[in-house]
From TrEMBL:
Protein species of origin: Thamnophis sirtalis
Gene Ontology BP term (one): methylation
PROSITE patterns in UniProt: BIN3_SAM
GO molecular function annotation: O-methyltransferase activity; RNA methyltransferase activity; snRNA binding
Keyword Methyltransferase: yes
Classification via InterPro entries: Bin3-like, Bin3_C, BIN3_SAM-bd_dom, Methyltranfer_dom, SAM-dependent_MTases_sf
Protein name, per record: RNA methyltransferase
Record family assignment: Belongs to the methyltransferase superfamily.
Compositional bias per record (Low complexity), positions renumbered to this chain: 58-70
Region described as Disordered: 58-88
Annotated keywords: Methyltransferase, S-adenosyl-L-methionine, Transferase
Domain spans labelled Bin3-type SAM: 1-247
The protein's Enzyme Commission number: 2.1.1.-
Gene3D superfamilies for this protein: Vaccinia Virus protein VP39
Amino acid sequence: MKPEWFRGREVLDVGCNVGHLTLSLAKKWEPARMVGLDIDGALIHSARQNIRHYLSEEMQQEQQPQPQDGPGEREGAPPAKKTFPASLAASRGPIAAPRVPQDGVDATVFPNNVIFVKGNYVLERDELLEAQKPEYDVILCLSVTKWVQLNWGDEGLKRLFRRAYRHLRPGGVFILEPQAWSSYKKRKNLTETISRHYQRIKLKPDQFPSFLTSSEVGFSSYELVAMPRNTPKGFQRPIYLFRKGHPGTH
């Protein structure tokens, strides 16, 4: 992924888990707004706690003692910053608390530019798609599609794809990392519902690009942007970038 896809943009991370990628992007690549969304409330709680970890890490880096010329401090040099003992963070958790945006504070600067929200991105029925307005420039959907299909079937995944398209502003991008079809089999018997959906799946991962660029969804083009190779077999997943065209373009 490239920094220019995110810098100054409004970004939604669907299925953010505990937020490590969300926070890393929010901190390093400076999106104007970064929203992490997950259906699991416990994961969202952990993601919010992880903001503290990222701030503590930042604070500890700032407090690293400066190199000295000799055994004593240089004359006229500012006193070294005092640091908290490592045992305190280990026993009491991260030291820094998330800063709360205040009037006059730049809301696009980390950590003010990131929030985590509990919710299901898969709408209950197709009719609700009509109410979806464009809000984002970038939507991430990484390692999510398998779980959507197993829990809500083909129709649930199609609804997610259509919602993502409508949720993007013209010119926006949808970044998709689908799991391989071979990985579904390992999870097919987790519940009766999952087993039933697994047996009925017709839209396979290798068909996602053609479906997303069809008239059923509407993306104007796509490209394969990454195919990790030096990774464990189960994590060698393609990453696609789908573009939403501007009105009047094809």
